[in-house]
Amino acid sequence: AYACDVTYVTNNELGFDYLRDHLAYETEELTLTTRPLNFAIVDEADSILVDEARTPLIISGEGDDDAPQKYDAATLAASYLEKGRDYEVDYKGRRVTLTDNGFATAADLLGVADDPLGLFGTDTKWAAYLFPALNAKELYFRERDYLVDQGEVKIVDEFTGRVMEGRRWNGGLHQAVEAKERVDVKPEQVTVASITYQSLFLLYPTLSGMTGTAFSEAKELSDTYKLDVLRVPTAKPLLRADAGDLVFKSKLDKFRYVLRDIREKNSRGQPVLCGTTSIEDATLISELLSNDGVPHRVLNANPKLARKESEIVSQAGRLGAVTIATNMAGRGTDILLGGNAALTARLRLREALAPAVDEMLEPLVRVERSLYPVDDLGAIEQQLQAAAQEAAPGLRQAIFADQDNATEVKASAALDKIDEFCAVAVAPPSERTEGQPGVDACRQAYNAVKSKFSEVVDVERQQVREQGGLAVLGTERHESVRIDNQLRGRSGRQGDAGASVYAISLEDKMFNVFGSDKMGQLSFAFEIAGDDGEPLQSDMLTKSLSTIQEKVESYYREMRTNLVRYDRIVDAQRRIFYERRQEVLTGDRQFLSKLLGQYAADTARDTLANATRLLPKDASDDEKNQAYEFGAEMLQRMYPACAVEIDTACRLALEDLPPTQAPDIFTVEDSLVSGTQKGFDLQVALVDQKGEGEDDLPAILMRFYILREFDQAWQQHLRDLEFLRENVGFQSYSQKDPFQEWTIQSNELFTKLSAKVYRNSAISWLSLDASGIVARPAAPVAPASPVVSDDDDVSNPVAAAQARGAASLNANDQTGEVAGNRGERRAKKKGGKKSRRR
């Protein structure tokens, strides 16, 4: 899809495709990065670039297999701990802190009371399991933050109210919630790759977007993304009446008012859209309306309603409709007064097509009859069924063509194909669809159904307008005025009439978490007015509530700004690292050999430098020789494939020196690098002989070893950065700037990361036993001497490589010899004792 000039993609999938591209081991796996990134247009820009930017995208891998049992035990221990006595809860910062008594009690419950480190013991590490369990207990709730569907915990997106399929919380939180809900706890996850939305969208040289509620965030969009916000006036005047907030003392009083207001509006036919911030509240209001006999529909995060979402929203403007939605931001479907004839006609077409393709699909597309403006279509129904039968064979072919067994096709995939066909059938005729079986017949049937529905919809639209249009009733303020305005904006679109009001209570989450300093003032207002269950409306209340909401917005804005500030350092490292990885992924043998050869040579130099760094300036020749020998032996053990060549190069370079005289360190370094390079070339030659067909086996293996080390090192780097980020704040106690310390230490970690990749890649390649690779049939090779002699000039690389099989150094043998060395000759001259570094 990314090869096209224009690609439509969700923000989540875009980020994950980018991360997956940088975990690929073959160029065929690449998607997004196959061509340069040029231009991005972001729909609902404020929701994606601001709200969702608080949380980075993370790809995780499995970690500790024993973790499930530990999370179960930690959850059990957390259930015995009491808030206030054993721990304190910071609802604003969303974290739990153990008291001294809590630490002691938890350590006793988990059986580590005798360990001096308690919950932080190096073997048990119970703190890593207990704190997520406490967070799951106090801060994350079913039907609000997540759902349990078929034994699986699914996260509910706090901004859209949709279930986030396939997403999991990190840091052990998801496992803790699974243990809390008594479902199967999946293995612990470790971060493999991550990126923030800020870093992701800044990869595009040109970035733009559109939304109806970005003006209040103009400064943040400018500071973070260098985007200017241009306000476009509405095409028609806004007729919606936005009332002031209705403030209640308790949630009970609030919900009583909501029930009365909905009942009153429903009795006279005015459609109502009731917005809530949690599934729990939506369920409660639904139960109250059901008990009162008010017909309504609920749109929440239930996965079973995902495909019916547009059906429900599109009909929220019909006469007398009552719709309860957990969150309306980004729903993407216009609510038209009187209903949506075009959408319902399309649904009716799909309802006819699906069973014509396969009867098993019929229950999945069945639409509640009351959603249709007209139930009995008469003769049009026969036309619709005939068109569906005409289109069915072609659709069947498109759905099942690539499958040997029709049962292997997922219902969702079949419905996607049917939806694609419906999109073509309802569009105006074009050359691309000309001659496609059933398209013209379905288009004619669709137009007939749409015309029939429009007769009723047009009449209802006028009746709804007379009743004041769509009424939006919010039951709780959101963390941002923008999100409140998004809910209000569902009404009064395109010059239609409408009304909106928020009914809130002092017991709402936002006021308890962020408005504790204002609660006394607000409660005093109710004491003066009298607690009769009726709402209060005053300038003082409105100002106080606005102040609380501004505090919430400021808190999250600071959180995002802080995230961007720290992430800029990580983003610079990520770009460098991913660029290097991409070069390896797409490089040929010449590039990889040069790169890995350089890694090996640099490691040889570093090994010698480490062996000699403790030598005093006035070190004796014997001390120097011991250090040189130690460095050479260490290098031979790291590079078994080069052991013979390193020893040979050293002996040839030093044969003119007396055995007791220490050579110049540069001579030793040149010998080690020369031997390493020869051994490297021999390894390439021998592996090449084992290749088959057109496969470039040396390039494949070198690429694999380098990429593997890249990925493992980056994963560890992310864990190190996470630990550093959590603890760098303590630097402020020593009068140091935490951000400056973060910058210095994170760059030091990145430097060590690069050196680790170079060293381990070279070690992996030169530790490969090429003789164990199954060779392809080849011409016989002349036998070679099993040991490289002093006179051998190593002119035949394959023969010399084969000789290594008999002369390789045993890595577990601390006294192993490689074809003799200078230490042995010097020891004989000094009395038979071989000098060794211990």
Written description of the protein model:
The structure is a single chain. The chain is α/β, with parallel strands linked by helices. Helix content is 52%, strand content 9%. It contains 28 helices and 16 strands. The strands form five sheets. Strands 10, 11, 12, 13, 14, 15 and 16 form a seven-stranded parallel sheet that branches. The chain has a three-stranded antiparallel sheet with strand order 5-6-7, with helices on one face. The chain has a two-stranded parallel ribbon with strand order 1-9. Strand 3 and strand 4 form a beta hairpin. The two termini are 60 Å apart.
Mind sketching the topology for me?
Layout: H1 11-21, E1 39-43, H2 45-51, E2 57-62, H3 67-80, E3 87-90, E4 95-98, H4 100-109, H5 127-138, E5 146-149, E6 152-156, E7 163-164, H6 173-180, E8 189-195, H7 197-201, E9 206-210, H8 218-225, E10 239-242, E11 246-248, H9 251-267, E12 272-275, H10 279-291, E13 297-299, H11 309-314, E14 322-325, H12 341-357, H13 362-365, H14 379-400, H15 411-426, H16 439-466, E15 470-474, H17 481-488, E16 497-505, H18 509-514, H19 516-529, H20 539-586, H21 589-612, H22 621-638, H23 643-654, H24 665-689, H25 697-727, H26 738-766, H27 797-807, H28 822-830
Parallel strand pairs: 1-9, 10-16, 11-16, 12-14, 12-15, 13-14, 15-16
Antiparallel strand pairs: 2-8, 3-4, 5-6, 6-7
Helix pairs in contact: 3-5, 3-6, 5-6, 12-14, 12-15, 12-16, 14-16, 15-16, 20-25, 20-26, 21-22, 21-24, 21-25, 21-26, 22-23, 23-24, 24-27, 25-26
